[in-house]
Amino acid sequence: MIRRFSGLDATVLTFGFAFLYLPLVMLVVYSFNGSQLVAVWGGFSTRWYREIWQNTQLIDAMWTSIGVALASASLATVLGTLAALALVRHGRFTGRTLFTGMVYAPLVMPEVITGLALLLFFVSLDVGRGFWTVTLAHTSFTMSFVAVVVQSRLVAFDRSLEEAALDLGSPPVRTFFKVTLPLIAPSVGAGFLLALTLSLDDVVIASFTTGPGTSTLPIEIFNKARRGLSPEINALCTLMLAGVTALVIIASLVTKARSVDGKMLEV
Amino acid sequence: MTTPHPKSPVRRLMQAAVPAVPYLWLLVFFLVPFGIVLKLSLSQTASAMPPYQPVLDLSAGLAGLSAFLSGLSLDNFVLLMEDLFYGEAVLSSVRIAATATVILVVIGFPFAYAMAKAHPSRRPLLVLLVILPFWMSFLIRVYAWIGILRPQGLLDAVLIGLGLTSEPLGLLQTETAVLIGLVYCYLPFMILPLFATLEKFDWTLIEAAGDLGARPWRSFRKVTLPLALPGLAAGALLCFIPITGEYVIPELLGGADTLMIGKTLSDEFFKNRDWPLASAVAIVLLVIIIGPITLHRSIELRRLEQAR
């Protein structure tokens, strides 16, 4: 057999995963550093975790981030699912080429361009910038990701079940909610989670579209990180890593790791 | 499709709403903003609010429109062409993105290859381990490298401890640091499309090549590589396109001399408050990546057709 997992392959994987995970491990370890100086080890301490808790600026930013993520991911899930249905089910309609282009473009658009375009748009409308402008901005770039995830499920969809329901006299809207939606629900859920993560992760588009007084957690971290390291940020990042890891483990247990496979990244 | 129900007006309306709602949303929040960027790139800076001119005055009717149109010019693009700074930013973005992509291929290929050779029962776990960092904040992953690369940071401590170097490397705020950060953050984007291709690979072909007397390197070059090429191209473009416009990594890990066009755009906008010039830079960035995007699209479409 040529296809043997050799010692060389094991070495490649070991080094690869070490490269992917060691920086994060170091970040976690140093978040428990008691010293004010980030580079010096001052003994184990949970001091920085307590300090985050008292930092109202960070806590406010966290709530803003969670609010923006939940609102934009919900909107994006509805819009993205509709877009996927339109792409897969509505054969030809006026301006289909333009529509397809607009659905796919945000996937590859550099964030600085999307951010700049949306900011200029909000400025020209003369609306006050803050929570809602960031939410709308996040909705419009994450809905494309939802559309792609749901679309890949719809393409593989067995339509005879829908047709059976229709033949038995079920109205189309009812058929959609009783047959179609439950069948595509895992991909809709995966799309929602992806939109949530993308929104929680975004710093560039949020910095462009936010206004004075509103700040998300990534914006706070970015502004602190620009000035160098801070032990508080180490602790905060560790908490976020723990949160994401827990979510991913729960999600993969629930969906038996099927919905988080390669499809997620096939954009 | 069988349609037992007569088309009632309500039903037709619901049907039309499926494409119409996301369509309208995208027109308003995608196409219109881009029209504004394009328009602004043809305008001039003004010390007013909004800080540019001409401003379209719809209340003046046709006269307002013609005054607006005659106020547009290509001055920003002429400036971008003539000022060496911007040309350098463009070249350096493309150079950094290309270098990072080559390094990603060199690291990602053996990795995806080893993953594809692993026992099928282990593969879901390996895939999960590659995806996990992708779900973790991009910003946190970049931030982690500040602690490693800074002067007297972890990398220096380890290298000095091992006796490999006697002086701190001082990598932070250099192009090397930016490249390390880029490779680190984009590695999953390279590995996953490659793995998806290699996983379906028919390994008996290699055996056949071996039986026919091909040496391992030759069968790799003549059999494996051509078959892995679609995945390789998809991964490379998936990395190259966003890296060209990358902003966060050069801002956090690079120095003042690390020029990247995404950072130039942001600086023009926020620091110099030159909105028209920032818009022109955005158009230039779009022009640079439109070729790779089209190529990526056509590769993906071919892959989809083959899968059917």
From TrEMBL, chain A:
Cellular location(s): Cell membrane
Domain of life from the UniProt record: Bacteria
Protein's name according to its UniProt entry: ABC-type spermidine/putrescine transport system permease subunit II
Family that this chain belongs to: Belongs to the binding-protein-dependent transport system permease family. CysTW subfamily.
InterPro entries cross-referenced by the UniProt entry: Bact_Polyamine_Transport, MetI-like, MetI-like_sf
Topology class, membrane: Multi-pass membrane protein
GO cellular component, one term: plasma membrane
UniProt key word Phosphoprotein: no
PANTHER family: PUTRESCINE TRANSPORT SYSTEM PERMEASE PROTEIN POTI
Keywords: Cell membrane, Membrane, Transmembrane, Transmembrane helix, Transport
Transmembrane segments: 12-32, 61-87, 99-125, 131-150, 233-254
Keyword Transferase: no
Domain ABC transmembrane type-1 residues, every copy: 62-251
Biological processes annotated in GO: transmembrane transport
UniProtKB/TrEMBL annotation, chain B:
Ranges where the ABC transmembrane type-1 domain occurs: 90-296
Topology of the protein relative to the lipid bilayer: Multi-pass membrane protein
Keyword Membrane: yes
Major localization listed first in the record, in broad terms: membrane
Family annotation (Pfam families): BPD_transp_1
Keyword S-adenosyl-L-methionine included in the entry's annotation: no
Cellular compartments annotated: Cell membrane
GO terms (BP aspect): transmembrane transport
Bilayer-spanning residue ranges: 20-42, 54-74, 94-113, 125-146, 176-196, 223-243, 275-295
A Gene Ontology cellular-component term: plasma membrane
Keywords, comma-separated and alphabetical: Cell membrane, Membrane, Transmembrane, Transmembrane helix, Transport
Family: Belongs to the binding-protein-dependent transport system permease family. CysTW subfamily.
Protein's name in the database: ABC-type spermidine/putrescine transport system permease subunit I
Natural source organism: Chelatococcus asaccharovorans
Lineage of producing organism: Bacteria, Pseudomonadati, Pseudomonadota, Alphaproteobacteria, Hyphomicrobiales
